[in-house]
Amino acid sequence: MTSQELTVERYEGVADDQRILLLRGPITIETAPQFERAVHHENAETMILDLSDVPYIDSVGLGSLVAAYVSHQKTGRCLVLTGMKPRVRKIMEITKVNDFFVTLARHGKQWKRWLTPGRLKA
Fold first, then answer.
1. Of 22, 39, 47, 77, whose Cβ has the fewest other Cβ atoms within 10 Å?
2. Is residue 1 part of a domain?
3. Which domain holds residue 31?
């Protein structure tokens, strides 16, 4: 994987209305369309974005996260962020968007306890 690729793994949550997207790679102007497609194709009531393998985001990536938040809010769904690296957290704090998001502390891969067996096809 080059530094500009983004991969998305989809997991089912313990309930039918939960999905977890594990993102690997930066969310940037180059990868934002792929991120947006992945988020758009999910209609779960609660979507958890695991950002533990996202080393950084640029302004376009930040805009994509905010757009995903707005889309979920408008339809009464919940978007949760977990596993933010300090660099990602810092850009969210500087731009003051961090308060919009529900965040979960992540120690290891604790969200995996919410999974049902089997992975969704990407």
1. 77
2. no
3. 7-106
The answer to whether residue 29 is domain-embedded is yes
Cα separation of 78 and 72, whole Å?
A: 6
Give the C-alpha distances (Å, rounded to integers) separating 23 from 57, 77, 83, 98.
12, 20, 10, 18
What is the greatest pairwise CA distance in the chain? Answer: 38
| CATH number of the domain where residue 59 is located | 3.30.750.24
Q: Which helix (H) or strand (E) holds 61?
A: helix 59-74
What is the pTM assigned to this prediction? 0.83
DSSP at 111 = G
Secondary structure element (H or E) that encloses residue 53, with its range: strand 46-53
pLDDT tens, position by position, 5-55: 999 999 988 778 899 999 999 999 999 999 999 999 898 999 999 999 999
Closest CA to 67 of 93, 94, 90, 33: 33
